[in-house]
Amino acid sequence: MGTSASPPPLPRNIDDPLDILAHEHVRQEWLCDLLETIADGLPGTLECALAGLVTEALRNDLPLHHKDEEEGLFPLLCRRAAPEDNIDAVIRQLCREHLADDTYCDDLIDVLQALADGQAPKNPEMAGYMIRGFFESYRRHIAFENVVVLPLARARLTAEDLTELLERIRQGRRRLAGLHN
């Protein structure tokens, strides 16, 4: 597949929280590409470094992104959306998907951590199936958010909402950086 082991670089000085969330989606698509590379290599090729990289992202970045959306973006959208946006149903579905993805990640992290540690999976077909199930579902999730949620947020959120969301995102990044220092 030719996927780079280096993540797409973060743009410098992003002051638009919706651009930050959109860029995180680009990084998540890259992670899905890495997962596909890992699954394609099973049962023979162990992608230890890639598995370690993806494991860390699934442990840290993905939950933080979900939290940014659920505690930052989604409440603001609920406050600003027009009745015809039917945003409550959309957000309920996205939150269910986040919960399912987070739960799935727990099992997937176990498989990926073993690969990162150089251990061949006991059942490579099942490991490949699990990995593919996650990235295929998550790609659809990202696409939906890019096509529906982010454009709606751009149309509905006020400048004050964006400032509040930006601060929320920055606080989460500072907390995560503090955990790793």
Describe this structure in words.
The chain has about 180 residues and is mainly alpha-helical. The chain has one domain: nmb1532 protein domain like (Four Helix Bundle (Hemerythrin (Met), subunit A)), CATH 1.20.120. The protein is built from 5 helices and no strands. The protein has helices spanning about 15-40, 50-80, 85-115, 125-155, 160-180. The radius of gyration is 17 Å and the shape is elongated. The two termini are about 35 Å apart.
Provide a compact summary of the structure.
The chain has 181 residues and is mainly α.
Evaluate the radius of gyration: 17 Å
Judging from the principal axes of the Cα atoms, what is the shape? elongated
CATH class: Mainly Alpha
| Uncertain stretches | none
- The chain-level structural class is mainly alpha
Biggest pleated sheet: none
| Counted beta strands | 0
Helix segment tally: 5
Tally of discrete structural domains: 1
Termini separation comes to 34 Å
SSE sequence, one letter per element: HHHHH
Defining key terms:
single chain; 181 residues; mainly alpha; Four Helix Bundle (Hemerythrin (Met), subunit A); 5 helices
Secondary structure layout:
Layout lengths: L16 H25 L6 H33 L6 H30 L7 H33 L2 H22 L1
Helix pairs in contact: 1-2, 1-4, 2-3, 2-5, 3-4
